[in-house]
């Protein structure tokens, strides 16, 4: 019980700190969007370490073989997480950015569509893969990442985000890939 209380206390502490430090930038990148800027976190090495440790506590039971990070803010913590867990990190990038042979997936956005890619030889069959990004909004990007992993016969073991905009219900469309959906702070 003591441990559980300690865990909840640290978790709440990180959530409070994140709410203080994450900066709202109105009308970026377009009018009407309130952009959650997480770059101030990276100026604080202790908070950065606490975040990594907290996410590792969340995903430890998943027996991960690799972490996939979504361009570009998903790389910041994704690489640190994979390195600390001593497992591979695999980048997903927007179309045309990766130099070698790729697999790609197109998906619809509110206006228009987008396409993401991954190098074709990086996910091994039946690997348990965590998808990491800075923020969950509608879930469309994370869904596309899950499709890319399944196309290569990997298992989507879970999703991890620093921030979730829960009013957009993004986790609903992710549940068909995995019920393991984690974040550190919600709005
Ligand atoms: P979605 O596909 O709608 O879940 O959008 C998630 C992607 O868009 C992530 O890669 C986020 O970095 C980015 N994103 C969407 N909305 C915001 C926001 N309000 N603030 C910061 N990033 C956002």
Structure description:
The chain is of the alpha/beta class and 187 residues long. It has one domain: Rossmann fold (3-Layer(aba) Sandwich). The chain is 35% helix and 30% strand. The chain has helices at residues 2-21, 45-59, 73-85, 140-151, 170-174; strands at residues 23-26, 34-37, 66-70, 89-94, 102-108, 113-119, 128-136, 155-164, 181-182, 185-186. Strands 3, 4, 5, 6, 7, 8, 9 and 10 form an 8-stranded mixed β-sheet that branches. A two-stranded antiparallel sheet has the order 1-2. A hairpin with a 7-residue loop joins β1 and β2. The longest helix is centred in the N-terminal third of the chain and has 20 residues, at 2-21. It starts with a helix and ends with a strand. Adenosine monophosphate binds next to β2, β7 and α4.
């Amino acid at each position: 019980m003591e441990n559980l209380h300690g865990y909840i206390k640290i978790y709440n502490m990180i959530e409070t700190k994140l709410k203080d430090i994450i900066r709202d930038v109105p009308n970026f990148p377009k009018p009407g969007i309130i952009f959650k800027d997480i770059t101030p976190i990276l100026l604080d090495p202790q908070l950065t370490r606490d975040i990594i440790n907290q996410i590792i506590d969340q995903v430890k039971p998943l027996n991960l073989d690799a972490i996939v990070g979504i361009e570009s803010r998903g790389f910041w913590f994704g690489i640190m997480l994979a390195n600390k867990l001593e497992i591979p990190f695999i980048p997903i990038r927007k179309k045309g950015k990766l130099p070698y042979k790729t697999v790609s997936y197109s998906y619809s956005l509110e206006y228009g569509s987008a396409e993401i890619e991954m190098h074709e030889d990086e996910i091994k069959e039946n690997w348990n893969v965590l998808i990491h990004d800075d923020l969950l909004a509608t879930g469309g990007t994370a869904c596309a990442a899950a499709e890319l992993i399944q196309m290569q016969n990997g298992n989507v073991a879970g999703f991890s985000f620093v921030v979730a905009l829960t009013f957009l219900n993004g986790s609903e469309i992710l549940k068909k890939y995995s019920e393991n959906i984690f974040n550190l702070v919600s709005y």
